[in-house]
Structures are given as C-alpha cells and as structure tokens.
Specification:
By secondary structure, the protein is α/β, with parallel strands linked by helices. It contains seven helices and seven strands. It has one domain: 3-Layer(aba) Sandwich (Rossmann fold). The longest helix is centred in the N-terminal third of the chain and has 13 residues. 34% of the residues are buried.
Amino acid sequence: MWGEVFGRTAPLEVDLGAGDGVYAEARAQREPERDFVAVERLLGRATKIAKKAVRNGLTNLRVLRLESWYFIKNLCPPGSLDAITLRYPDPWPKRRHHGNRIMRREFALDAARAVRMGGMLKLTTDDRDYFEWAKKELAECAEWNPMESWKGESEPTSEFEELFQKEGREVYRMAWKKE
C-alpha cells in the first residue's frame, strides 16, 4: 500500500497530530531515504504542511487530514509502519475527559498491530501527569517495551518546544519498542 502512495519502498514513519508540520518537514528534509506521513485533524494545519512539502520538493512527505486514532486503527496495514510519533498530544487534564486521550491501552494495541517488529512508538509532552499516565497505559500492552535509553536528542524541535525551554518548562520524552 505505502509503496503505491510514495512510488517506492522505504522505511515509513507517522507523525500523529502533526500540528504545523515543523517536525515532519524537518525529518523529511534530513532523512530523504525515509518516508513520512503527517496526520492532522485540522484543515488549515494540514494544508499548511502540504504547501511546505510541495514548496520544498519533499516527495517523501504526505499529509492526511483525519483523526489520528482512526488512521492507525483503520488505514494502516499490519506491520507497515517503522515508527509512530506523538508530539504534545492534547493531555485532556480533567479526569472525566481521560477517555479522550490518545495514549490509551486500546490505541497502544492498534499501534502495535500497525508497527513492524522492532519498530517504535515515541511520545513527547510537557504535561507530567499525562506522561506518567501514558507510561502506565503502555505498560498494559505487552507488545511495547520501554526504551529507557531513548532521550530524543536527535529529534527536531518546534516553536512550542523552544518556547517551553525559554519558559523553563520541562519536556518529557519516552519511546517504546515493539518486541
């Protein structure tokens, strides 16, 4: 399927909730040997990412406008992804809204189906409560093993991240490997 989309066979990474696309664009520019799909629910943001990809000749970047969980659950063939990245997902801080969070056990199981053996799921957030909650949810999914050594040092930053650093806010990162 992805070979038809990109016109080649290459490792594929997905950026869920891609926002303004800075992360996906930076990765696509830096790693032309890999393919990237930026998934963004909001039309204006998705359009902005697509325009950047065209303007910069990034033939290894595609944009989809839809819900992230739907994309992973229904549109990704088993074992077709090398990595899934979630950067600053909505933390839904009120307890009664926790069911809206993407990093739930159900999502972890769907992500494990979509990612190849040895592939990764990466999370970056500025919300400590969400971070701790996500770690507990993923601990319930035997397919994902935490990669304690992964700190995300080589990950591109974003305007949000740079703003958080200036404000002195902590950024939390974690990656899991499918085994």
